[in-house]
Design a protein that fits this description.
Helix content is 73%, strand content 2%. The two termini are 40 Å apart. The protein has 507 residues and is an all-alpha fold.
């Protein structure tokens, strides 16, 4: 599951301003925006598109075991149902943003929404697990075209105080979508409307997407005045490298880690290294690269990427194994499984609001530490609950532990993005924000692969399902500790760099 924090998409990825015409062009030297008549209706359209994306990510994990039971196939397919979406979403995010810069954000946004709707329909009609996984890839690529365009178009339609209000509306909407996703997944699958069962979790995207397309003429076209070139070789290397790395992590236990899995892992790591070299070489030659090489001169930003990957691996992986234990271990219905996750989502939404409105303005980056402590305590509390609950009984204290984890997620996520971008230079902001969003999705994919595989490996070795979920939580505890170390490097002052009051960093 790609459980995005409510503030994740609130990171400005494209500084854009507009002229009074119907097509706006990014011009960093301009700061005045002529009021656009339909800006608030257009904002609602963009927010629905953002919420549709997050709903699709959070609605699936609850339904995934039911899908597997109906379509059959190896247990690793349960992980692929989520990873097949988040992996292409992650690796194509930056390219999707570049396409908007080149061809126009409104145009690419509409193409992405059409692809997302068609992918959702293909998911709902899929006759087999393989077809469903393929359709999920289509959804992920389409989402990578949609999401990068929203911030740029918002900035093209609003200015001054209105821009702050418009940007501030993203967090609450994402929080609401995060809360509704697991519950809606349980309700739709349980209701079995017209015999649709799990297929309804994908069909719900069709009216939402159709509404967004119907309202899309209200959007204002926007494109970059300085159009970057696509890095097709870099994109290909990233897809192959990350894909070959994730594949054996998910399939390894099912296949018993044969030589081909080790070969795939080695090839994936090697191609990822080649991708890093290719990006540096492309930047040095003056060509547009996927990743701004200068970002990695900043130790704090590199630490932020590691922290994001680890943090969202924990969030997505734990959500998956909780559902697996309930539905596969206790064989409870999909609806109570979805309701079990509600305290996590609800606490995350509330904590995000409190952190953004009160805590972060007063305490700054220190709120991240409080979030990680709460997440760690929630994971340890869940382990204690699983250790003291009979194998055939519902863990009644688990929702309280999950609420503590959700509290930690909300407290960490809000200050994280501000802190991660704190030392980034203005000309690096777009690349940095896109990369942060990409590694968030990548972390979710790795968490689904790693913690899901730990769960299935334990169960396959003959231990009880409770042992599998406890082992996964213990791995998550270790990841949280390492996340804390990475987060500490994010806020440690770097010798030779000064940070100004406005967040500008200079050497």
């Amino acid at each position: 599951m790609a459980s995005k924090a409510p503030t994740a998409n609130a990171v400005p990825t494209v500084p854009a301003t507009t002229d009074p015409s119907s097509t706006a062009t990014t011009d960093p030297s301009s700061t005045a925006t002529t009021a656009y008549r339909w800006r608030w209706a257009a904002l609602l359209t963009l927010l629905i598109a953002e919420a549709m994306n997050l709903l699709d990510a959070t609605i699936l994990p609850v339904a995934a075991p039911v899908i597997h039971a109906r379509l059959g196939g190896p247990e690793s397919d349960i992980q692929w149902f989520g990873a097949a979406y988040t992996l292409p979403f992650a690796v194509f995010l930056i390219t999707g943003g570049r396409l908007g810069d080149i061809a126009g954000r409104k145009r690419i946004f509409r193409i992405g929404v059409v692809g997302f709707v068609l992918g959702s329909l293909a998911c709902a009609l899929a006759p087999s697990a393989g077809m469903l996984i393929t359709a999920r890839v289509v959804q992920g690529v389409a989402a990578a075209l949609v999401i990068p365009q929203t911030i740029g178009m918002i900035r093209s339609m609003f200015d001054g105080a209105e821009l702050a209000r418009a940007m501030g509306s993203i967090g609450p909407v994402m929080g609401l979508a995060a809360v509704c996703g697991p519950v809606l997944g349980g309700v739709l699958t349980h209701a079995d409307l017209l015999g649709t069962s799990w297929r309804a979790v994908f069909l719900v995207n069709i009216p939402l997407g159709a509404g967004v397309l119907a309202a899309s003429p209200l959007l204002r076209e926007d494109r970059s005045a300085h159009r970057p070139r696509l890095d097709l070789l870099g994109t290909t290397l990233a897809v192959l490298g990350i894909g070959l790395t994730v594949f054996p992590l998910i399939e390894g236990d099912t296949a018993g880690w044969p030589a081909r899995n080790w070969a795939a892992l080695a090839a994936g790591l090697a191609l990822t290294a080649v991708f890093g070299y290719q990006q540096r070489h492309r930047a040095r030659s003056g060509r547009s690269a996927l990743i701004e090489a200068s970002l990695f001169r900043n130790r704090g930003f590199a630490a932020a990427l590691a922290a994001s990957t680890l943090f969202f691996a924990v969030i997505n992986g734990l959500t998956l194994v909780v559902v697996l234990q309930l539905e596969l271990g206790l064989h409870i219905d999909v609806l109570p499984a979805g309701l079990t996750l509600l305290p996590w989502s609800g606490a995350m939404a509330v904590a995000s609001w409190i952190a953004g409105s009160r805590l972060v303005p007063r305490y700054g980056a220190r709120v991240m530490a409080a979030g990680l402590v709460a997440l760690l305590l929630g994971a340890l509390a869940a382990i204690a609950v699983y250790a003291t609950t009979p194998a055939t009984a519902y863990p009644w204290l688990l929702p309280a532990a999950l609420a503590l984890g959700g509290l930690g997620q909300g407290l960490f996520a809000v200050p994280y993005f501000t802190t991660a971008l704190h030392r980034v230079r203005p000309n690096e902001t777009g690349s940095a924000a896109g990369l942060l969003n990409a590694v968030q999705q990548l972390g979710g994919t790795l968490g689904t692969a790693l913690l899901g595989t730990v769960f299935f490996h334990t169960v396959a070795s003959g231990d009880a399902v409770l042992s599998g979920v406890r082992n996964a939580f213990w791995v998550a505890v270790g990841l949280i500790v390492v996340t804390g170390v990475a987060a500490a490097f994010m806020i440690t002052p770097e010798r030779g760099r000064r940070t100004h009051a406005d967040g500008r960093a200079t050497d």
